[in-house]
Amino acid sequence: MTYIHQTSISYSDSSAPKVWRIGKYIRLSRDDGNSESESITNQRKILDEQIAACFDGSCFVTDEYIDDGRTGTSDDTRPEFMRLTSDVKNGRINCIVTKNLSRAFRNSANQGKFLEEFIPLYNTRFISLYEPRIDTYLNPEVVHSLEVSITGFINEQYAYKTSLDVRRTFDTKRKSGEFIGAFAPYGYLKDPVDKNHLVVDPEAAKVVKDIFHWFADDGMSKRGIVLKLNEMGISNPTIHKRRQGLNYWNPQIYNNDGLWSEKTVHDILRNRTYTGCLVQGRQKVLSYKLHRRAQLPEKDWYIVKDVHVPIVSPALFEKAQARSRLNTRTAPGQTQVHLFSGLLRCADCQKSMTRKTSKNNVYYCCSTYTRKSKFKCTRHSIHEDRLKEAVLFTLQKQIELLVNLHQILKTIEIASNSSSEATQIDNQLLSQNKELKKLSTVQDQLHLDLYAGILSSDDYTRLYTRLKDRSCQLQKSISALKERSVSLKNSASPYLDNFLSTKNISKLEHSLLTELIHSIQVHENGKVTINFRFSDPFPSNEI
In this structure, are strands 58-68 and 20-28 parallel, antiparallel, or unpaired? Predict the structure, then answer.
């Protein structure tokens, strides 16, 4: 776009007219909402209409810089503003035009530095069309005026108050179990009726389930899962979201090859959202100006259970977490972890055992001895076949003992290790039943307000539908909690159940070992000590 216009404005400069290379800066903040007056379209129209009237010589609109949904309190969070300043530095543009100061700045310090230092340094013209009217070429002293300073201060205070209000609103939503993320986690979609509620994405949810089962039940490594997903031709979460028509963006979006990575699989396995739970507020913004985040301790997180349909069971999720805490790295070229990966420890130095192969014989040695110093520990060597026999024999004997224990516990009605969870469930049931009763009362009141003419038919339908949906969610959650409560009362311990479910064990698998065994300590004399996850009634088994 090229403008060549004559205006009535006369300059004191008698030299040849300067050619202005214009950069139009437009910013729309999330705080602006659906304001038509601040829309990108309206800002562009105003700038296009006014540009010609600001110049008495040639001018060229070199580029347009639009920060959509960006805050004005910090320069480095506005990519287009950063590109604008870069173009000023390299001489591509020598004039900046914006609607008003609040579009360019909501940080008075940045405003002052930009107008008083940056603009003169690079001999650039800055024009703000609306009050206070600024043209640093026609009136360079205006940037030092009280009006400009006060406007910068007012804009900053507005940004601070808005930021505070937004944070309070978000905290309220987090407490009530409303999802406030920009995009739903992979496996879910935002409810078309309620954007703060998650619904299952069937295609992606199946992949999530497979990942958990492959890792927790089948003993696959994260690397092995990545290879399998990519071989199956399954798009990674980023590409999946983009194909759904979502304007999903991350820093690597343009270099994304559609393939899965170990980090992506790791993040999915750690995400409690898949159990029907919402965990939000893990970080806080240090300052409304800096926009940097700091990690918060778990006690300050907003954790709300049973707010949406789960994709994996809590038991499967915890099983995956237990495996993740182990050293489950694989050897180069391997997709399955070794049988005892993450479980073996030297009985003396408590460091991990190193797996070695010699002439088709597999054995384990203390990692301190083999990798660090032969003076700090001894070999603690043991053959894998000997270890397999010892562990299998001990598991079988432990199960025999626990079968009898199970009968005893049931007889004397001991709910070992489950009382805490049972208490939590009782509290949840009490709270959710109260909410359900309250919703019923509100629904009755809506009927009365409709008949009394206080509510319109449309308002009544909208509110009633929302209340009904929430009531259905609560009823499903209450039903699930009751089932879990009954299960806990009929079970002495979740770990005891795991043992009893493997009553006829005849073959060792890594997933089974991680489920039943906490650690295996190898002594120098060839003996091993097995520490079971359910080991309260008995000392650790030494063989």
Answer: parallel
